[in-house]
Amino acid sequence: MNQLTPDLSVKLGPLELQNPVMTSSGTFGYGLEFDELVDLNLLGAIVVKGISLKPMTGNPPPRIVETPCGMLNAIGLANVGLEAFLKEKLPKLRKFRTKVIVNIYGHHIDEYAELASALKGVDGVAALEVNVSCPNVEQGGMAFGVDPDASARVTEQVRKSTDKPVIVKLSPNVTDIRIIAKAVESAGAHAVSLINTLTGMAIDIETRKPKLANIRGGLSGPAIKPVALHMVYQVANAVDIPVVGIGGIVDYRDALEFFIAGARAVEIGTANFVNPRATLDILEGITEYCQQKGIHHITDIMATLGSNLHI
Amino acid sequence: MNQLTPDLSVKLGPLELQNPVMTSSGTFGYGLEFDELVDLNLLGAIVVKGISLKPMTGNPPPRIVETPCGMLNAIGLANVGLEAFLKEKLPKLRKFRTKVIVNIYGHHIDEYAELASALKGVDGVAALEVNVSCPNVEQGGMAFGVDPDASARVTEQVRKSTDKPVIVKLSPNVTDIRIIAKAVESAGAHAVSLINTLTGMAIDIETRKPKLANIRGGLSGPAIKPVALHMVYQVANAVDIPVVGIGGIVDYRDALEFFIAGARAVEIGTANFVNPRATLDILEGITEYCQQKGIHHITDIMATLGSNLHI
Amino acid sequence: MKEQQLEIVFNRQINSNAWLMGLNAPEMAKSARPGQFVMIRVSRSMHPLLRRPFSICGTKDTLMLILYRVVGQGTAIMAHASHGQKFSVLGPLGRGFTFPDAEGSIVLVGGGIGVAPLFFLAQNLKKHRFLFMAGFGSADEIIPVGEVIGTQIDVSIATDDGSIGHKGPVTELLEKYIAGRDINKKAISLFTCGPKPMLKRIADMSKDQRFWCEVSLEASMACGVGACQGCAVKAASGKDKAYYHVCKDGPVFAITSIDWASY
Amino acid sequence: MKEQQLEIVFNRQINSNAWLMGLNAPEMAKSARPGQFVMIRVSRSMHPLLRRPFSICGTKDTLMLILYRVVGQGTAIMAHASHGQKFSVLGPLGRGFTFPDAEGSIVLVGGGIGVAPLFFLAQNLKKHRFLFMAGFGSADEIIPVGEVIGTQIDVSIATDDGSIGHKGPVTELLEKYIAGRDINKKAISLFTCGPKPMLKRIADMSKDQRFWCEVSLEASMACGVGACQGCAVKAASGKDKAYYHVCKDGPVFAITSIDWASY
Ligand SMILES: Cc1cc2nc3c(=O)[nH]c(=O)nc-3n(C[C@H](O)[C@H](O)[C@H](O)COP(=O)(O)OP(=O)(O)OC[C@H]3O[C@@H](n4cnc5c(N)ncnc54)[C@H](O)[C@@H]3O)c2cc1C
Ligand SMILES: Cc1cc2nc3c(=O)[nH]c(=O)nc-3n(C[C@H](O)[C@H](O)[C@H](O)COP(=O)(O)OP(=O)(O)OC[C@H]3O[C@@H](n4cnc5c(N)ncnc54)[C@H](O)[C@@H]3O)c2cc1C
Ligand SMILES: Cc1cc2nc3c(=O)[nH]c(=O)nc-3n(C[C@H](O)[C@H](O)[C@H](O)COP(=O)(O)O)c2cc1C
Ligand SMILES: Cc1cc2nc3c(=O)[nH]c(=O)nc-3n(C[C@H](O)[C@H](O)[C@H](O)COP(=O)(O)O)c2cc1C
Ligand code: FES
Ligand code: FES
User: Fold this and answer.
1) Percentages (nearest 5) of helix, strand, coil residues in chain B
2) Neighbours of chain A (3+ CB pairs under 8 A)
3) B88 at interface of C, judged by CB pairs closer than 8 A
4) Long-range CB contact pairs, C166-169, < 8 A, 24+
5) If you write DSSP's letter for every residue of C5-36 in order, what string do you get?
6) Which domain holds residue D16?
């Protein structure tokens, strides 16, 4: 019997990916940390840890705490900074054929633009993911992400400063995420990715202190999947640009739910901690699903919720 | 050795409760369904299923689906309606010494007022909980809950129409829940309760249909606890009226986290399905905790986050 | 109705995909009636979260028997449980079968794991004569009644692949039975449980034939006690309710009570 | 570093609250170095979600040994696991102890379950003479080294309640040892692991005494491979980094590298 080899390639606007399974920022380091565990060449793309202009040391510990089917993190965007990223990390990443997407974070709009300019034309950077939604840093981040105008302005500035595809990463901590999505679409985003973490908290009842030194943190993992899936569905039906689904995806079935809801690609986050091979297991599962159902192109099942096609 | 008997009584504005552990609306029916399993007299209060003016049949099935450490429901406020509640349910509930709080839901502001008027002076109704946050009905509900002005207007109308304490139940599906909390505080709410469910979704990858006939539903259970706790902490620090904590509480430790964060009482929801005795187990656990720590009044640990008292 | 920690006395695989669990349940085994069910909490963790509903498929002294198919995470956990382990069980829940009228013919029609509540009914029909028809995918999926409830009962078997018995749906056995009879059809009492298509077919047949038929239904459940309104099934038009709740109004219903078009 | 499904060869309780698990791990047992750790996925469900980190406390042929205390949900699940069951294990992870200089005196100081990485170190110190001091709550909490790694080693014991050995913290044994010695203190190599107060005390002592000391630290972890930045500990002032990551830069650190005031 001839096994069908489904075509898993997808396009996020101008960005072409060999398959729609990427790693999510902050959960896969600079990719290299997983080199011994995962054949990085097989991934759709690697989204690296959020990079800021200057190195950031991050929040005091404890920075993570487990919650039911999830975790809270308050890393505080600890990262090596742009310079060290370009010098130490990127050259190693270039050895892989997998596309590298740089997640950028600025304290002000200008910093986003500066980061984008600095990455302009840099070889081995396939696209930018603009983090306007980090709940774990005092200024910037979240403040932009919950305000459609500010999100649009950041997007506009980044677009102006770069020749690379621009993906804007959205915060779920808003009343109507479609409004933000539409705002960044109008401002020129090539794609949106969602969701970043939900703001949450945990308390130690013995010490009566927050379990995170930062008091609050970002909730990720399977716990948030239903919320993420709903928002992806909402946004996919509100904008014309591609949507990247993120949030609680741990297996191929989760990934397929996001595709059916309208995601053009997915990012795998917390699952990497539970199962370092999660991305590859998901790719295998998606391939088998396509084979069983006779699906030739993964795009054929995308945004088919309720259409109930019999392909 | 003389065991300390901690005083668990609390006040929610004018409403006095023998203890701070209540059941949450929609998860404990009209209380009576649990009569064989739980000594209802021991509860802080029973919050009954949301009551509307006319009976509501609810959404088509499937109405519930399990998610990691949580569940989605799209009951659609199925309820017997005000008349049947007063005739068939309330007389039976009056036989218990536990206070009964009626959760009310209206399609328009007028309906909330009408419900409040109809319950004015009714014996055996200790307070009203105003649901401005149900994600599972088309009109009303959520629309009010995400708009501070509308929430305030509903609160005002209900206050005008009743002599009972008014608790307003808030939606977590907003950018800043403190704004809504402050709006209903100004409009005369005696207390706020939070959170109602987070909007979420699940998809069947075989049929490519939503797992809920209603497409979306409300996420509840342990999965949402970190989000709920954070919002309770935020609101408790933003308003002067008492806050009732709800969301993912399954054991006494969860309940204590909410107290420490600033909740004056808690409501137990989804946990009742997992462990029908959850409320009583939580009461026992709280009592033992107080005994071990030498806490005489449960109120002594409320809103003590970070104060790190050595009592 | 109680919530109790019940100990597993045995838990064994009885065919390619069905397992039989015996729980030591002196009280529940005594009070349970055929058609009732229990809700089992399969894990101490919060994932899976909700209790799983299972029909009681029989009792034996202080034992309560659960016949189950492994379909997902919860039932997989059950299949791995061993002697001595305890599960929190809530039950017995719901309304059982109406005890059949002694006069007419009694027919039990089960499909797949749907035989479970019918086995318990059969156990309680000792004094009555009855026919038992059961459909399975193929020979290796047959659930041997004797091995489950300890009493040998003649069962007419149908299999989808014809590997044993009649080839085709079990409803064809039922059709033949009814077609071959001349007597007043109302004197037939039918009790059934099984997959949707089978139930829909029987619902269709019962429209024409007007025999008395009770069906045990499934629905997603959260509370099991009528509190959450989660387990709704649409009532046939003309009924006093728009929806029934499977956990409280059922799981056994008169087949004519249900709106089969939307089931 | 690998992720492998490892089979439990044995898993037994060795005192009131400590358990010893032997995993069949030909590759990891061979490559692991004292001070390294593994991350164990204790459940197939998503609750508990994250892997749990454990020091390797020894090896024996193809066996990798894990000594653990039951403190919460994850370790309770481990304690219930039995022979033949498999766990997904990620490891060996992190940097181990620097192999001690052959010249000076070697002292191992463990507190409670903190003896685990030191047992593995002791196993590998065969050719060297060393002292082992261990503190426990009381006699019934003692973890017998011979039973764990199969080699008898003299251990000076301190207990909080004085039920055996010295009454008081194990650091008092260390203080006595150091006080009683006249030699060049820098020739002492200290290796330690245990509860915070013990480590802080030793950090204090090492400030004055200037002996060489390595400490194995704990932190909440998510990835275990240096990717998430979750396991930060504050570096002593003057270091080139603000924070170290316990999983990658450690878990073993020179005691002078850490900012003990904030630990
Ligand atoms: C009143 C009643 C009696 C039942 N009696 C039996 C019985 O005697 N033997 C038996 O094997 N099964 C019985 N079931 C079905 C049984 O409850 C489900 O198979 C079980 O809950 C699946 O759990 P899981 O975690 O293994 O699967 P999941 O991973 O939860 O789901 C796997 C599949 O099972 C379906 N499912 C999940 N929950 C339910 C549910 N509550 N009802 C129906 N389907 C569900 C899902 O849609 C999915 O397709 C009964 C159900 C009801 C409502
Ligand atoms: C590098 C390293 C090596 C370790 N080696 C051992 C060992 O050899 N033997 C042993 O028994 N324990 C060891 N631990 C601690 C062990 O990881 C925790 O006890 C375990 O994760 C608790 O899991 P739980 O689910 O039972 O408890 P939980 O329910 O998760 O928590 C119970 C308690 O344990 C604490 N805890 C949870 N996770 C961690 C963690 N990652 N690190 C420290 N404390 C935690 C919590 O704060 C809480 O107080 C080590 C930890 C690290 C970081
Ligand atoms: C430890 C950790 C660090 C993260 N760091 C970043 C970051 O630097 N930039 C960013 O945009 N998102 C960051 N995120 C968010 C994730 O990329 C992802 O959006 C979120 O975790 C939800 O996906 P998940 O449930 O699959 O983990 C981080 C998440 C975690 C858990
Ligand atoms: C099945 C179900 C029905 C509910 N019905 C109502 C309702 O009628 N009115 C209301 O205000 N909240 C309703 N809720 C929300 C709960 O009262 C509670 O706010 C929410 O479930 C979060 O708490 P939990 O995580 O403890 O369940 C319902 C929740 C569930 C699960
Ligand atoms: S399962 Fe809750 S009403 Fe039936
Ligand atoms: S645990 Fe992820 S960096 Fe250490």
Assistant:
1) 35, 20, 45
2) B, C, D
3) no
4) C169/C111, C169/C135, C169/C197, C169/C198, C169/C201
5) EEEEEEEEE-SSSEEEEEEE-HHHHHH--TT-
6) 2-93
- Cα torsion B182, B183, B187, B188: sign: negative
CA-closest residue to ligand 3 atom 23: A247
* Tokens 């650091």, located at residue: D171
Structural domains in chain B, CATH included, are: 10-301 (3.20.20.70)
Angle separating helix axes C170-179 and C196-209, nearest 10 degrees: 10
More confident residue, A258 or C98: A258
Which protein residues are within 6 Å of ligand 6, measured from CB? Answer: D 221-224, 226-231, 245, 247-248
Per-state percent for chain A, helix, strand, coil, to nearest 5:
35, 20, 45
> How many angstroms separate the alpha carbon of residue C246 from the centre of ligand 5?
7
In three state form, how does the secondary structure of B49-65 look?
CCECCCCECCCCCCCEE
Asked, for residue D221, whether it belongs to a domain, the answer is no
CA distance A141 to A120: 22
Give phi and psi for D12, each to the nearest 5. -130, 150
Chains in contact with D, where contact requires at least 3 CB pairs less than 8 Å apart: A, B, C
Which residues are bridge partners to A122 per DSSP? none
CA torsion angle B104 B73 B29 B54 (round to 10): 40
pLDDT recorded at residue A310 = 40
What does the pLDDT look like over C127-158, one tens digit per residue? 788 999 999 999 999 999 999 998 888 999 99
B196 Cα–ligand 4 center, Å = 6
User: What is the least distance, in Å, from the CA of C158 to any CA of chain B?
Assistant: 27
Low-confidence spans in chain D with pLDDT less than 70 = 100-103, 182-186
Strands B70-73 and B21-23: unpaired
Query: Is residue C170 domain-resident?
Result: no
CATH code of the domain covering residue C43: 2.40.30.10
- The answer, yes or no, to whether residue C4 has pLDDT greater than 90, is yes
* Torsion, CA A139, CA A140, CA A144, CA A149, rounded to 10: 100
Tell me: the pLDDT tens digits for D70-115? 999 999 999 999 999 999 999 999 999 997 665 678 999 999 999 9
Contact status, residue A236 vs residue A186, Cβ threshold 8 Å: no
Does residue B162 sit in helix, strand or coil? coil
**Structural domain includes residue D34:** yes
> How far does residue C249's CA lie from ligand 5's centre (Å)?
10
> Can you tell me the distance from the alpha carbon of C109 to that of B71, in angstroms, rounded to the nearest whole number?
34
The DSSP-derived string for chain C is -EEEEEEEEEEEE-SSSEEEEEEE-HHHHHH--TT-EEEEE--SSSSS-S-EEEE--EEETTEEEEEEE--SHHHHHHHH--TT-EEEEEEEESB-PPPPPSSSEEEEEEEGGGHHHHHHHHHTTTTS--EEEEEESSGGG---HHHHHSS---EEEEETT-SSSEES-HHHHHHHHHHT--S-GGGEEEEEE--HHHHHHHHHHHHHH--EEEEE-----SSSSSSS--SEEEBPTTSS-SEEETTTT-BEEEGGGB-TTT-
